[in-house]
Amino acid sequence: MVIIAITVSGIYVLLVLNAFLTTQPLAGGYDDAQVELLRRVLLVWMVLLFSLAAVNGIVLTWATVLDNRHSSALARALGATPREVSAALGVAQVLPALVGAVLGAFPGGFALFAAINAITGGDSDRATLPSLWQLLAVVLATVLVVAALTAVPARLGGRRPVTETL
Fold first, then answer.
1. Distance CA 128, CA 133 (A)
2. Tell me, what's the pLDDT at 70?
3. How far apart are CA 72 and CA 106, in angstroms?
4. CA-to-CA distance for 7 and 159, rounded, in angstroms?
5. Short-list 115, 155, 141, CA closest to 50
6. pLDDT digits over 119-142, tens only?
7. Which of 59, 95, 134, 139 could form a disulfide with 101, with the two C-beta atoms 3.0–4.6 Å apart?
8. Are 9 and 110 within 8 A, CB to CB?
9. Predicted local confidence at residue 28, as pLDDT
10. pTM of the model
């Protein structure tokens, strides 16, 4: 949950910076080439954030699958299907991701932006904060990506033979 909140907070700040580069006339004195370079830097940071979040999500899901292999095997021995076990493990990852995304988008992102602004002495009056629809899109996309990234490890963990695990 904390990893997701930190990632979404970083995305919030990147959205603010992108809006600054888009809305300011020559982005506060930068020429077109400099603005394009800054946009590429923002893209690199976005890719890094997404990559780290994806790796963390997969590792966390795999650790959850390994930790729950005995209880999952017991549930399967009592009649649960591999699909039901996989779905339960997926939901166990998606619900905290939803909470983390909401906390990262609304109070976390704004707090991170305010802290960066205070440290650098930036002008927050000129900043364009992300709109509600952008924040909702980030939260929804985060939940969908976490669900997709957790599907494979959860499916693999749910398919282990019960006798081997117990």
1. 14
2. 84
3. 35
4. 31
5. 141
6. 877 766 667 889 899 999 999 999
7. 139
8. no
9. 58
10. 0.81
- 3-state SS, residue 129: coil
Contact partners, residue 126, CB within 8 Å, separation at least 6? 20, 24, 28
Q: Which residues contact 23 (CB under 8 A, 6 or more apart)?
A: 128
* The two structure tokens encoding residue 121: 């002495």
DSSP 8-state code for residue 125: G
Q: Which helix (H) or strand (E) holds 118?
A: helix 109-120
Q: How far is Cα 59 from Cα 55, in angstroms, rounded to an integer?
A: 6
What is the reported pLDDT for 24? 61
**Spatial distance between the Cα atoms of 48 and 118, rounded to a whole number of angstroms:** 24
Structure-token match 């095997």, residue found: 73
What is the number of other CB atoms lying within 10 angstroms of the CB of residue 124? 12
What pLDDT sits at residue 104? Answer: 93
Report the candidate in 1, 163, 150, 13 with the shortest Cα–Cα distance to residue 85. 150
Token duo for residue 19: 């809006």
Angle, helices 32-67/132-158, rounded to nearest 10 degrees:
40
As given in the structure block, the two tokens for residue 67 are: 């930790």
Nearest-Å Rg of the Cα atoms of the chain is 20
Where the chain has pLDDT below 50, the residues are: none
